[in-house]
Amino acid sequence: LAFFAGGQAILPSFAKCPYEVMYQVPWFEGTGPGFCPPDYWNPVSLVPGLVIFAASYALRRYASENRLVVGTKSLGTAKVERGEVVSETTLAEFGDVEDWSVLPVGLRVKTRSGGSVFVPPLWNVKDVEALLEERIG
């Protein structure tokens, strides 16, 4: 979705020129506006789209390399490379959890020792809620 939004932000900067100088891709067989030659491109208007592209790439990369692990005794994350778990980090022991909630922006866990953990929502919310309810109560 973010990648699509980035494309929508970039496309107008390629189509702001006089109709006479626009060109169409070879396989297009219709009529209407096309793309402008590079002389008419506006680099400043490309910046928002490029920022959105970069953010969506970074989010996709983070999501593919990090997994939320709801174990039998603790909540943690696992770093994954080429389908193999490289390292695991414990975020909170279930015995130390004071409160937890799933928010629209992620999972928030408060511990009795005064700490707080936040995990972005890059997992199946219903499954995580069911597992946490079963393990923590």
Radius of gyration from the alpha-carbon trace, in angstroms = 23 Å
Distance between the termini: 34 Å
Q: Oligomeric form of this entry?
A: single chain
What strand line-up does the widest sheet have? 1-2-3
Calculate the mean pLDDT score and round it: 82
Number of strands: 6
Helices, by number, come to: 3
Major β-sheet annotation:
3 strands, antiparallel
Low-confidence stretches: none
What attributes characterize this protein structure?
single chain; about 30% helix; three-stranded antiparallel sheet; 6 strands; alpha+beta; 3 helices; about 140 residues
Task: Report on the architecture of this protein.
The structure is a single chain. With 137 residues, this protein is of the alpha+beta class. It has 3 helices and 6 strands; from the N terminus they run ααββββββα. It has helices at 2-10, 43-65, 125-135; strands at residues 66-70, 74-81, 84-93, 97-103, 106-111, 116-119. Strand 1 (66-70) and strand 2 form a beta hairpin. Helix 1 runs antiparallel to helix 2. The model has no long low-confidence stretch (mean pLDDT 82).
